[in-house]
Design goal:
Layout lengths: L2 E5 L6 H10 L3 E6 L12 E5 L5 H8 L4 E4 L11 H20 L4 E5 L13 H13 L1 H16 L3 E5 L3 E3 L6 E4 L7 E3 H10 L12 E4 L1
Parallel strand pairs: 1-2, 1-4, 2-3, 4-5, 5-6, 7-9
Antiparallel strand pairs: 8-10
Helix pairs in contact: 1-6, 2-3, 3-5, 4-5
C-alpha cells in the first residue's frame, strides 16, 4: 500500500481528495489544525495536528510518504501582507528541502489557471483571467507565481496543476493542456482523480498543466 501525504485535507478540494485516496487504498497521512474536522476519517488515516507553517509538524506529516499532495493556498478575495505571503513561500521552500533530505521526489499541488510559468507565452484568455485575479485576489497570484518559480528551480518531480474555478457536479469531460485555457470551470471530483492519477504518471513531470471540464 503506497503512503501519501495530503496537505489541506479539510478544504473544498482536500476533502474529496482525501476520500478518493482512501477509496483507492492509499495509506494517508495529513496535516490538520483540528482533528474534529476529520471525525469521519480518523480510523482510516494518520493525522498530524498542526499548522502548515510549523516546520516540525510539516516534517512529521511528510515522513514515510512516497508522494506529497497539496491543496494549500491563501484565502480568496484577500490581500495579505508581504510577510504573510512570504510564509507560504518559506513553507514550500522548507518542504522542497526536506523532500531532498528524505529522498522523496513526487510533489503535486493545486495552483491556478491565471498563474504563469517562467518564460511562458500565455494565451490571451489566460492573460485576461490573470488580470481579473490580480484585481480580486492579488495575493493568490503573487504566492502561486512564486511557488511555481521555486518548483521550476528545484530538482524534485513536481506537477503544479492549474485549474480555473473549481466547482461541484460540473458536467463534461476532463481536459488537460500544457498552456491553453480550457474553460471557466473544472469539476472538483475530476480534479481530485487527476491529482491521484498523477502520482504514478510521468507526462506532466516538472510541468504545470492547465485543466478544465468541457
Amino acid at each position: 500500500m503506497k503512503q501519501i501525504t495530503i496537505l489541506g485535507a479539510t478544504g473544498f478540494v482536500g476533502k474529496p481528495l482525501l476520500q478518493k485516496a482512501i477509496d483507492n487504498n492509499f495509506k494517508v497521512k495529513i496535516l490538520a489544525r483540528n482533528k474534529e474536522n476529520l471525525q469521519n476519517y480518523t480510523q482510516s488515516i494518520e493525522v498530524i495536528e498542526g499548522n502548515y507553517f510549523d516546520k516540525d509538524k510539516l516534517q512529521s506529516a511528510m515522513e514515510g510518504s512516497e508522494a506529497i499532495l497539496s491543496t494549500i493556498g491563501p484565502p480568496m478575495n484577500c490581500r495579505l501582507s508581504a510577510t504573510d505571503e512570504d510564509k507560504y513561500i518559506n513553507a514550500l521552500a522548507y518542504i522542497i528541502k526536506q523532500m531532498q533530505v528524505n529522498k522523496q521526489t513526487r510533489w503535486i499541488n493545486i495552483s491556478g489557471a491565471g498563474v504563469k510559468m517562467a518564460h511562458e507565452n500565455t494565451p490571451l484568455a489566460r492573460k485576461l483571467l490573470r488580470v481579473k485575479l490580480m484585481a480580486e485576489s492579488k495575493s493568490i497570484i503573487n504566492i502561486k507565481d512564486r511557488e511555481l518559480q521555486l518548483l521550476e528551480q528545484s530538482n524534485i518531480d513536481w506537477t503544479s496543476i492549474r485549474p480555473p474555478m473549481i466547482k461541484e457536479k460540473v458536467e463534461g469531460d476532463f481536459v488537460v493542456d500544457g498552456n491553453k485555457f480550457l474553460g471557466m470551470v473544472v469539476d472538483v471530483n475530476q480534479l481530485c482523480e487527476f491529482m491521484l492519477a498523477e502520482i504514478n504518471n510521468t507526462k506532466w513531470l516538472k510541468n504545470a498543466p492547465v485543466v478544465g471540464t468541457k
